Amino acid sequence: MRLFSGGIAQLGERLHGMQEVSGSIPLTSTRIKANTVHRFGVFCGWLGFILTVVGLIGTGVTLPSGKEDVIGIWINLVPVGFVFLLVGVTATQMSKK
Fold first, then answer.
1. pTM for this structure?
2. Which residues neighbour 16 within 8 Å (Cβ) at sequence distance 6 or greater?
3. Contacts for 37 with CB less than 8 Å, ≥ 6 apart
4. Which of 79, 80, 59 is closest to 69 using CA atoms?
5. 72: part of which helix (H) or strand (E)?
6. Positions in the chain short of pLDDT 50
7. Residue 13 contacts residue 21 (beta carbons within 8 Å)
8. What pLDDT does 1 receive?
9. Hey, is 96 helix, strand or coil?
10. 27/8 Cα distance (integer angstroms)
C-alpha cells in the first residue's frame, strides 16, 4: 500500500546557446491518502487513551506507597497520552472530506 499518490513534478534542461532550466507542474498534487491518515489517527487515539488510563491507574496504585520516583514514572505517562490523543483526534478530523 502506497502512502502517497499523485503526480510528480519534473525538471527539464535546454542547452542551446543560453542555459535555461524549466519546471513542469503536475496535473494532480501529491498527497497522503485519507485512509492512511485516518488509520494513523485511530491508532494514535487508542494509544493515547491507553497511556492516559495506565498512567492514572499506576499513579493511583503507587500513591499510597509514597515512592516519589515510581509515582513520577506513572504520572509522566498522562501528558504523553494526552499528546497522542490530540494527534489522533487531529489526524482523524483531517482525513474527513
1. 0.63
2. none
3. 91, 92, 94, 95
4. 59
5. helix 68-95
6. 1
7. yes
8. 47
9. coil
10. 9
